[in-house]
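Researcher: Go.
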Amino acid sequence: MTSPTPAGDDQAAGERIKLWFRFAPREGWLPYDTEGLWAAPVTSDTARIENVPFLVDGVAQGDIVRFITGTDGLHWATERVTWSGGNTIRVLPIPSGPLGRSAAAVHERLAPFGIGGEAYSADFPLVALNIPSGDSLSEIKSLLTHGQDEGWWAFEAACIGDAWNNA
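Model: Structure:
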């Protein structure tokens, strides 16, 4: 099943293209096997990812990805060419926890670090975060672990580097 596409199309996006990723759906997770991410063309067959992935692993905002264009005009990712150094972390607030189902509360807790991200929907408040590698990684990782231990949220690391692992 294809993940929902936000309103708009490639023409409305100007210089951006929708870059599609295929993956195996996970049991107990959303029932999708593709995700479309906005990207800015770099060459005729590469593009820079412009938003944070909710579903696909191994990709971060700012990465450069190679793609092929199908006969239907869709652009399909084939490999990551360059890692941006960003870390993709997903946070899902626990409905029975102190934050309830509030994606805004997740953003509020992480605001002091200037972390950018997106919320999937009001019905499913999964927050996908783009966390640059830098000096604050250990503090951010500590806060995420503390929040998980306290029942605020569950989180997963979807695309990370050595700096995240060593933080």
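Model: Residues 24 and 92 are 20 Å apart (CA to CA).
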